[in-house]
Design a protein that fits this description.
- The protein has 11 helices and 10 strands.
- It is an alpha/beta fold.
- It folds into 2 domains: 231 residues, Malonyl-Coenzyme A Acyl Carrier Protein, domain 2 (3-Layer(aba) Sandwich); 62 residues, Alpha-Beta Plaits (2-Layer Sandwich).
- Helix 2 runs antiparallel to helix 4.
């Protein structure tokens, strides 16, 4: 068996997400370390409260903490080491910690900076993101180009699901264009910034400068990039991806389609959410994917071990 950990990005958050994490020694340790870091920075420790989650910085920090906590519960408490990690958008920082490219404090500092830079880039205007379902990527890209306005393709999640970033004024025009093109659905996301688009070019440059100062470490596993949807095995390649992904579309479809070719047979999506699990069912149906959001930690561990012993049998 070859195991992958998947880490969700912004949009998966919900109030109380950190309090709902599974009980385990490693989860408790990650929460203590994170609260200590937040306190030292003068930030609120209740970053997963309803009001707190209205702020992009709190959302991204909470997602990082949840992802690292779940991964360490699987690796340190239950001995399930992944051969691959992949994070969607800000989830890539939890993937980088799990791969060994970043420490948790380094990732917390980088994610705080990333979120603040993203908010700064969007401070002059009203921005957001939306999911387009039912159209391939090419017509969606053509549609954004033909609109001649502030709308860009931000994520390619599957063969028929993409995400747009743009101004709140332009997104309704994109919705109408998507409907005219035959889209099945157009949904505005609970995201207050425009990610993975040219608006974030300066954010990417400043992130690159920040990450350049960090040490390069040997990795524990391979990492699937956001910017290219490819597997890399050096800290340099991971940190480059972390820096530049904020201004480039997330190639999630390519990354997940690659997993079976790399030998991945089982994947676990960390809390919160299960969107990546559902995408994997479409993108990589040969990979057994389990969401911690939908299953308790102990049952996921049992099912992974059963899958390791009998890889041809799908866990119940």
């Amino acid at each position: 068996m070859s195991l992958a950990f998947l880490f969700p990005g912004q949009g998966a958050q919900h109030p109380g997400m950190l309090r709902a994490l599974p009980e385990s020694p490693s989860v408790s340790a990650v929460l203590r370390e994170s609260r200590s870091w937040l306190t030292a920075r003068g930030l609120p420790t209740g970053i997963d409260d309803d009001v707190a989650l209205r702020d992009t910085t709190n959302v991204q920090l909470a997602l990082l903490i949840a992802g690292v906590a779940c991964a360490r519960a699987l690796t340190d408490d239950h001995g399930l080491a992944p051969q691959f990690v992949a994070g969607h958008s800000v989830g890539c920082f939890a993937a980088a910690v799990t791969a060994g490219a970043l420490t948790l404090p380094e990732a917390l500092a980088a994610v705080e900076l990333r979120a603040e830079l993203m908010k700064e880039a969007c401070s002059r205007g009203d921005w957001g993101m939306a999911v387009v379902t039912g159209l391939p990527a090419r017509p969606v890209r053509q549609m954004t180009e033909q609109l001649h306005t502030d709308v860009w393709m931000a994520n390619i999640n599957s063969a028929t699901q993409t995400v747009l970033s743009g101004s709140r004024a332009a997104l309704p025009r994109a919705a109408q264009a998507a409907e005219d093109a035959g889209a099945a659905d157009f949904e505005i996301l609970d995201v207050a910034v425009a990610s993975h688009c040219p608006l974030q070019a300066d954010s990417a440059s400043r992130m690159a400068a920040h990450l350049a100062a960090l040490p390069r470490r040997p990795l524990k596993c391979r990492y699937l990039t956001n910017t290219g949807g490819r597997a890399v095995d050096t800290a340099d390649a991971i940190l480059t991806d972390l820096a530049h992904a904020v201004a480039h579309p997330v190639q999630w479809y390519d990354a997940t389609r690659l997993m079976p070719e790399l030998g991945v047979t089982c994947a676990v999506e960390t809390r919160p959410g299960h969107v990546l699990t559902r995408l994997n069912a479409a993108n990589a149906p040969a990979v057994t994917t389990l969401a911690l959001q939908d299953n308790d930690l102990e049952s996921v561990v049992v099912r992974i071990r059963r899958h390791a012993e009998h890889p041809r049998i799908m866990p119940e």
